[in-house]
Amino acid sequence: MNELRRDRLLEISSDEMQLKAYESNSSTAVIAGPGSGKTAILTMKVVRLLETKIVEPQGLACITFSREAAREIRDRLHLLGYVSRGNSFFGTVHAFCIAKVLSPYARLFDHFRLSNPIRIASAKERKTAFSQAMQRLVFNEKDISMTEMDRERRIGILGDSKIQIPSYDIALQVAREYEEILHAQGLIDFEDIVNYSTALIQREAFVRKCLEAKFPWLLVDEYQDLGKPLHEIVLSLLLRTKINVFAVGDPDQSIYGFQGAIPEYLTELASFSGVKKIVLGKNYRSNQDIVSASEAVLESDRGYVAGTRKQERAEIRFQVCEAEMEEQYSVVVKQLIPEYFSRGVPYEEMAVIVGTNKEVSALSSVLQENGIPFYVSRHEFERTELVQWLEDCCKWTIDSSHFQFEHLCWYWGVLLGQKDSAIVLDISERVRLYSCLIRCASYKEDLKLWLESLQDGLGIRQLLAESTLFPDELANLDQLLGAVEERSDRFDLKSFAELGRPNNQVTLSTRHSCKGLEFEVVIMLGMEEERFPSYYDLSNLEKLAESSRICFVCVSRAKRICVLVRSKVHTLKTRKGPWEKPFEQSRYWAILENWQKTKGGKNNA
Fold this sequence. Notes:
- This protein starts with a helix and ends with a strand.
- Helix content is 49%, strand content 14%.
- The chain has 24 helices and 16 strands.
- Helix 4 (67-79) links the parallel strand 2 and strand 3 (89-92).
- Strands 9, 10, 11, 12, 13, 14, 15 and 16 form an eight-stranded mixed β-sheet that branches. Strands 3-2-4-5-1-6 form a six-stranded parallel β-sheet, sandwiched between helices. It has a two-stranded parallel sheet with strand order 7-8.
- Helix 16 (385-398) runs antiparallel to helix 17 (405-415).
């Protein structure tokens, strides 16, 4: 047991509910509030299970919401001294369904009629099929979006859940037509991957038996974000196999309703008689004022308490601008960031949270013009598993003593078409990868040359062009190379290796993207009624409740300081020309202002 693991175990032992979750030996639903240490519990749970409960050749499966979350879990496990076992899985639900369900079992059952090998539709092929479906049904773009269609495909899965969600008839019609067009070409998309896997697990006892034999434990991170298909997979395995489920999440942080995720799925799982419910109620991130203020936004007392900063008071501040987002950007750049920096808050402990990616881009330009370093988690390219693997190759190139070559070999095997991570990569391919990385090290000073040398030396472009599982990776690789060439001042080997982490930079994020982050100072822009919450959410109780959860997530990112900024007027484009529309303060502004007046917090309005 290394020192970090000993320290983590001591911390867990001092928190009664964390210890119960860590030591549970049966199916458990962990309701983990903000800052309660859910990822630490999850990773320590993995290590405990693999070292004391699960005997090889069995392993476990750990499913995450995003690739970044899967990577964080793998990185934390490495720091805890975990030695990789080929019979365990760590990744997204799509990766799990492809590698552990569809690839090994779909071809055994004729009624699924999937092509062999599986062919995943590219973004272009999906758009074409969607357009054709719309034309056949005589709908236009104003009637339905691809996002609405995909949501309908997710929530339409039937199974053991008793939760009912109203169907959107137009979306359902388009979904059926779209799938018929796509499947006629021998293609499936990412929604099909999960939906077909759900059906295989539900209908075929043989598939459930095989999964039970491989994985006596199934762990799920951010359960509230993963939606109906995964919920039905979990319930089917929970009710019809001996697999134990360990699910971690927070219904109050369910903010992806547009994707079909709702808080009730985790609540329903926790209600099953064979599932133990554990609530992690201590927040080890924020002081009590921030904890209480974030609960006030929900208009519900969760009873969470601060496990740190117990004598500290929060600073909750309200900044009013006259007009437009541009004035808010100016206040952030010329007043708020310099002020907090002068008070000793480093840039990496500040975050500015806005409503849209367009606003992130606009604020980025203002920060750049004023010479303030900033970090944006969203780039011109996606941080796919290939891009993350290239980042890891960078890390190994910079310092091979701090990154295991074995981790690089696993994904190289995936690229070569090796679907089962339990298979050891052929020695000749290991040597080829190692030799290529050594040769590329001569380009350490030029990231673009290093990337081009690596892709040419390994034949990555040809592999991607021939792949049926990575239809958009080649285009994404080109976008990465273009971004590196265009912004050479921002990208070198070191910055690319640390792409997922701010380095002496202010973080810019949308409200949805800030989940999982934490900062000393959080600055929230666009705090006007009808903008947050949106005008379109005001008449829909479910959407309004989700908007409140989004605000709860944003406020709870702060450790000590939360600043709300709004403008009195915004100019809207109308058919009759520009309209300078007055906006009132957001209801969340009013709630927090009232909370501060009646209950506490330092007022710096």
